[in-house]
Design brief:
Elements (H helix, E strand, L loop, with lengths): L5 H14 L4 H11 L3 H15 L4 H6 L3 H14 L5 H58 L3
Helix pairs in contact: 1-2, 1-6
């Protein structure tokens, strides 16, 4: 699942575990085994706090994305034994839409970002080709001959 948003990867691991009849914790542990980075380390700290029986709201609110916050709150409910499969399916659809929107916005910015090499490298070369013969003629006429 390379290239998948980290919260979506966590959601899919938990969904797969629930479909196999395993508890939510198994899906979270599978995610932590397979992934590395900032979000998996945050999930690991969240899981440690949850297992110790401590309050996790401060850590959840530290997460920037609202989708990440909702996902961790939902998984916390699942760890307590509540049925969360239907909510996970609807959250998956919502997260997929958010990922597609993010891709669309990045694709919309791409043509403008690709203009930078054009302006920095190709445009000055074009100006040299355009004004080179003109400047050569100008300097030749100033030279008197």
């Amino acid at each position: 699942m390379e290239g998948v948003a980290p919260p979506l990867a966590l959601l899919l691991c938990v969904k797969r575990a629930l479909e196999k009849g395993q508890p939510t914790k198994v899906g979270v542990m599978n995610y932590l085994k397979r992934h590395q980075g900032d979000f998996p380390s945050l999930v690991g700290r969240w899981l440690a706090l949850l297992q110790q029986g401590k309050v996790t709201h401060g850590l959840i609110n530290q997460s920037l994305s609202p989708h990440r916050q909702v996902l961790l709150q939902l998984l916390e409910r699942g760890m307590r034994g509540e049925a969360i499969y239907n909510v996970i399916v609807s959250l998956e659809e919502e997260m997929l839409e958010a990922c597609e929107d993010d891709i669309r916005t990045k694709l919309a910015r791409l043509p403008f970002l690709l203009l930078i090499p054009l302006l920095l490298f190709q445009f000055p070369a074009f100006l040299l080709l355009l004004f080179g013969p003109l400047l050569q003629n100008f300097f030749h006429s100033l030279g008197g001959g």
